[in-house]
Amino acid sequence: MSSPAEKVAEALELLPEDIREEAADYLLSQAQKFQALKQAIDEGMADVEAGRVRLWNLEEFLAEAREHVK
Q: Does 29 score more than 90 pLDDT?
């Protein structure tokens, strides 16, 4: 069985040459977004586990916001 990198290389080879670079750039961009999202989730879960998170009450938030506007 081929590795994921080999599969990507094979897929790029199957594409017309004039769109290969754009396809590779897109794949890289998506992978970078995935990594950033994964990091943000990991940071959020660490906050939850450390007890730095509390429930958010929308009504309370809106009431406070309205008070600051007055």
A: yes
**For 3, phi and psi rounded to 5 degrees?**
-75, 165
Q: Are 15 and 27 in contact (CB under 8 A)?
A: no
3-state secondary structure of 70: coil
Q: What is the b/e burial string over 34-53, where b = at least 16 CB atoms within 10 angstroms of the residue's CB?
A: eeeeeeeeeeeeeeeeeeee
What pLDDT, on the 0 to 100 scale, is given for residue 1? 66
Tell me the domain boundaries of the chain: 4-69
The angle subtended at Cα 38 by Cα 32 and Cα 44, nearest 5°, is 140
34: tokens are 């995935």
